[in-house]
Amino acid sequence: MTTDVTGRMPVIETRLANGLTLLTQEARGAPIATFWVWYRVGSRNEVPGHTGASHWVEHMLFKGTDRFPKGVADKSVAGCGGIRNGMTWLDYTTYYETVPSEHIALAVAIEADRMENARFLDAEVASERGVVISEREGSENQPGYALYEAVTSAAYRLHSYGRPVVGFKHDLRTMSRDDLHGFYRRHYVPGNAVAVAIGDFDGEAVRELVDREFGAIRAGEPAIYEPPEEPAQEGERRVTVRRPGPVPLFSCVYHVPAADHPDTPAIWMLGAVLGAGRSSRLYVNLVATGLASSAGAGSSETLDPHLFRVSATVRADVEPARVEEAALDVVARIARDGVADEELGKVRRQFRAGHVFGTEGVTSQARSLGSSEMAGSWRRAETYLEDLDRVTTEDVRRACATYLVEKNRTVGWFLPEGGAR
Amino acid sequence: MIAVGSAGAPRVRVALREATLSSGVRVIVHENRQSPIVVVRVGLQASSSQDLPATAGLASLVGSGLIRGTTTRTFAEINATIDAAGMSLGASAGRHQTTVSARCLSEDLALALDLVTDLIRNPTFPDDEVGLLLGQARNGLRQADNDTGSVAQRHFRERCYPEGHPYRLRAHGYLHTVDAIGAPDLREFHAQKYSPAGAVIVVSGDVAFDQVVGALEARFGTWSGRSIAGGTVPGAPAPEPSRHDATLEGKTQADLILGVPCIARDHPDFYALRIANLVFGRLGMMGRLGETVREAMGLAYGISSDLDANVLAGPWSVRAGVNPKNVEAALDAIGTELTKLRVEGVTEEEFERACRFSIGSMALHLETNDGVAGTVSDMVAHALGLDYLDRYPLIIDALTLDEVNAAARTHIPAYDRVVVSIAGPTA
C-alpha cells in the first residue's frame, strides 16, 4: 500500500449491497477517528414553498430514535471526549462524529440508526420550528447576510441555488411535520448517501463495521430531482439593501460553471489571484489604497453552475461608487492583460501549502473528501493540485474574460440608512 | 515524554523539550514529524491589560501594526514574501499577552523565523501604513457597535467591572479612543512594552530540537529590554445586580448576556467549576441550558454558558440570541436553571460524563500542531508546568461530585444577583 506526498494512506472506495458508498482512509498520526455520512440533498433539491426543508430535517436528526432516544447520542459522544455536528449546504446535508478512535463503533451506530429511524415527533417539530427561525433571525441581524441573500436571489431566476439554505421565514412558519418527514423518507436512503471514515483504525475492520450497521437498511430509491436549468444572463442586474447599519458593503457575483467543468481549475486560480492574501489584486488595489477595510473573491465547488463572488467592505469615509469602480477595474485588467507567470506561481504555492495544512486533522480531511464527492467526485480532492498545475496564464485570462463580464454580473450593495455610514 | 489519558481514555504522547536563550527567552519544542508543517507561537508580555482608558485599543493596534513594515522590509514586501511561501503570519494582542504566530511548510522555517523576529524586534510603524490600519480599525469598531452581540458584551463588562479594571475595556478600543491614537503612540508602546522579559516561544512540528533552538538563539539571543512593571489592578467587587437594554435599529434578533465576575484561572475551585459549567451550558447540545431553552422551548438557536477564568477573575456568563418577544421567557428559563443548579447541583451521571469528556477530548485538542502550540502556550501563560498534560487526567479524576456542587453554589450567582445586558430591536 502506497502513501501520497503527505504520508497519507490511500482512500479505499467500496459499496454496500444496498447502495451505500463508503470511503475509508487510515491515518495513524493521532488516536482519533472521524465518521461522516453525506446525503446528496440540500437546498438544490427544494421547491418553492419548502425552502429550508433540508436544513430543518438536519436539525430533526438530532431529536432521537428508539435506539438512541433524544439526548443519548449527544451524551454518549461527549462522554467519550468526542464532538459531533451536522451541516446543510446547496448540494448536501452531512453529519459527523470525531472521537477517540476506539469509539468509532459508537459513531457508526448513531449514523446508521438515524438514516432510517429519526422520530419526527409533532412536539419536536414544533419546538424546532422556533429554533430554525431563531437561526435565520441571527443571520438576518448581519448586514453581510442580508446582502448575500439579496444578491444571490437576484442572480437566479429559476435554479434553486438562488434560494437561501436556511429557508425563507414564511416557509419555516408553514411547513408541516409531514412535509419534513416525507422529505426525509425520500432522500435518506443508502443509495443517496456516502459514508467517509478517516482515522487511526484498521480499514478492513471499519468496512466490516459499516457493513454490519448499515447493511440491513432498506435500499430504497433515491428521489431524483433536477432543478431547472438557469438561463444565461443577458445583462447586468443590480440590487440594493437599505437599512440601519455601520458601513457600505459591496458584492458582485458572476455565473460560473459547475465543479466538473474544464474551466473550473482556472476559475479557482483566478479567485486566488484576486483575493488570496495581502498581495492579491483586490487587497493591493482596494485595501492598501484605503478604499476598503477588506476584500475577497472566489467560488464554491458545486454540482450545478453557481456564482463567483467579488466582495468588499467599504471604508466609512469613502464614496461607495469608488469601490465598485476600482473592483471592476481590477477584474477588467485581468481580462485584458492577463496575469504574470510569477503571480500564478505564487498562487500554486498557496494552494499546495494549503493542501498540506489541510491534511493535519482527520475532520478537515473527511470534510474535503466528502464535499468534493457531493460536487461530483471525491477524487477531485486528491487530484486538484495536478489540475491547477496545468492551468496557464492564458487560461486564467480567458476565464476572466469569459465569465467575469458585465452581462453576466449582478451587482449588490448594502447601504446604511439614517446616515450611519 | 508526557502522556495524556487515564484508565479508559486514549493516551496522547506529546514530548516537550525546553531551552532558554541567552536573552532569557524560553523556548518549548514539540517535535512532530507526521507532516512537513511547523507552527511557531511567540507569547509576549505586552497586552491590552496595559491600555489606559483614554487609549483603549492601543495594544491591539500595536499587535496588528507589527506587520506594517520593519527596518528592512515594507508591508508590501512582507505580504509578497508570505504569500509566495503560502504561509500564514499574524499578531494579535490579548488581555494578558500578545501572540505572534506563523504556520509554514517546514522547508520555509528559516524564512518564517526571520519574519517573526523582524516583526517583534524591528517594526517601524510607518505613518502611512498606520493611517490605513487606523481606518480599518475604525471600520471594524463601527461594525462592532452595530452588532447586537458586541454591544451586549460591551455594556455587560461596563457593569461588571469598575473604572480602571482592565476587563472593563474593550480590547479593540472605541471610536473615540482610536481617533486619539497615532503612529508615535504605537512606536512608544512597542519601545516600552516589547521585551524578552517573560517571552516564550513554542514550536510544534517538523523540526529538530537542537536546530530550531540554534536558529532562535541566532535571532533572539541578543534581544534585550527591560522588564514590564505590572500596574495596580483595582479589585472587582461583586457588582450590583442590574439590567441594561440597548436598542439597535435594523435588527431582527436580540442578544442577551447575563453573569458576574467569577474566578481566576489559578483559583482552587477552577476545575470543579469548569465541570459544573460544562454540565450547565456546554456539553452535548449546550448542556442543561440547551436542553430547556433550545430543545424544549424552541426559543433560541444559540445559547451557552462560558467560564472565562483568566489571569484575573474573568466573567462567568450565559449568552443567547432570541427573538425580542421571547427575551423575558428566555431570561425566566435561564433563571430557573440557575436556581436548579445552585439548589440541586449536578447529578452523579452528569458529573462523570463531564469528567470523561474533559479527559477524552484532550486527544482532539492535541491532534494538530496548531492545537499543540495553543495548548502549550496556554499552559505557560498560566504557569501550569510542562508536566501539566500528564497531571491533567489525575486532576480531573481526583474531583468529587461534592466539590463540583460546592463550587457551583459558591461561584454561580443566584439569579437576582446577576448583571443582565440585552441589545436588539424593540419587541
What does this structure look like?
Chain A is α+β, with helices and mostly antiparallel strands. Chain A has two domains: 12-214, Metalloenzyme, LuxS/M16 peptidase-like (Cytochrome Bc1 Complex, Chain A, domain 1, 2-Layer Sandwich), CATH 3.30.830.10; 237-417, Cytochrome Bc1 Complex, Chain A, domain 1, CATH 3.30.830.10. Chain A is 43% helix and 19% strand. Chain A has 15 helices and eleven strands. Chain A has helices spanning 53-60, 72-79, 104-116, 122-140, 143-155, 169-174, 177-187, 203-214, 264-275, 281-287, 320-337, 341-358, 362-374, 379-389, 393-403; strands spanning 12-15, 21-26, 32-39, 83-88, 93-100, 193-199, 237-244, 249-256, 292-299, 306-314, 409-417. In chain A, the strands form two sheets. Chain A has a six-stranded mixed beta sheet with strand order 1-2-6-3-5-4, with helices on both faces. In chain A, strand 9 and strand 10 (306-314) form a beta hairpin. In chain A, helix 10 (281-287) runs antiparallel to helix 11 (320-337), helix 11 packs across helix 15 and helix 13 packs across helix 14 (379-389). By secondary structure, chain B is α+β, with helices and mostly antiparallel strands. Chain B has two domains: 7-220, Cytochrome Bc1 Complex, Chain A, domain 1; 242-424, Metalloenzyme, LuxS/M16 peptidase-like (Cytochrome Bc1 Complex, Chain A, domain 1). Chain B has helices spanning 58-65, 75-85, 109-121, 127-145, 148-160, 175-178, 183-193, 209-220, 270-281, 283-296, 327-344, 348-360, 362-365, 369-381, 388-398, 401-411; strands spanning 3-4, 12-13, 17-20, 26-31, 37-44, 88-93, 98-105, 200-205, 242-247, 254-261, 300-307, 315-322, 419-424. Chain B has a six-stranded mixed beta sheet with strand order 3-4-8-5-7-6, with helices on both faces. A five-stranded mixed beta sheet of chain B has the order 9-13-10-12-11, sandwiched between helices. In chain B, a hairpin with a 5-residue loop joins strand 3 and strand 4. In chain B, helix 3 packs parallel to helix 8 (209-220). The radius of gyration of chain B is 23 Å and the shape is globular. Chain B starts with a strand and ends with a strand. Mean pLDDT of chain B is 94; it is low at 1-10. The chains are: A alpha+beta (421), B alpha+beta (427). At the A-B interface, helix 2, helix 4, helix 10 and helix 12 of A face helix 2, strand 7, helix 4, helix 10 and strand 11 of B.
